[in-house]
Amino acid sequence: DLELHLQRCQQLSVTVLTDHQDLSNTELKTITNSTAPQQYRIRAKLRTYKPQKLHQSVKLHCSKCNSLQEVPDGDDFDFILQGSANTASNPELHNTSWYESVTWTTQDQKQREIAIHFVKHDEMLRHPEDTLLMIEGGTLKEIWKLTKRFKCVIPVRSTEDDLELLDLSAPFLLQGNVKYYGCKQCSTPKPMKSLSSIAAEQQPSWEPTEIAQVLGIELLQYVFIMKFTLVDETGALNAYLFDY
């Protein structure tokens, strides 16, 4: 557990970074006065690390505009889903050449109408574990149930002409327990009929990168980021960890 390990590191008087064993120790003052890139071996104390809670280290990164953003929480997604549920499903968009549609009304007080569009392959529905579906009017709980059975779930809403993605603050795709997000700044979302090109493939893989590409989405990647402040008797040095 990295968090426990870091706490232990702070309790120790000295932490030794064991890489570059062939190099002698270099003072931090020398490193800060040197030009990059160089390789050093240091002997230093860990003064602080950020963020303090390990889950806060996970961010979303856009490789195109190089932006970093927080991972939205489930409440944000639920709020967007509730908003989209107010838009009635357009019956004229049901049962096209590349997907089959099923609708029903919930038994709760709100009597929500839910529409699920199962993408066909070669005019046939595939096995659930290979199937991509689009859902209108579903709650977060209902969507998570679907992700346990079907390969890909895309939350959508109806327009006059086509189905479209929700606000990009919401994930544009869910696969298993992973939510995939698109960059608001770099994406130019296309209507859902763009997916029909993948459905027409002999063996569609439904890979997130391929789905993002045809839908005009710049895919955000989950990254792990931490900042460490290291000190010795000559000075301090900030070390940054950034990894996919």
UniProtKB/TrEMBL annotation:
Q: Please identify the protein, giving its name as recorded.
A: POTE1 protein
The organism of origin for this protein: Rhagologus leucostigma
Domain Protection of telomeres protein 1 C-terminal insertion, residue spans: 75-218
A GO CC term? nuclear telomere cap complex
Pfam families per the UniProt record, alphabetical:
POT1_C_insert
Biological process terms from the Gene Ontology for this record are: regulation of telomere maintenance via telomerase; telomere capping
Any signal peptide, and if so, which residues?
Answer: none
Molecular function terms from GO: G-rich strand telomeric DNA binding; telomerase inhibitor activity
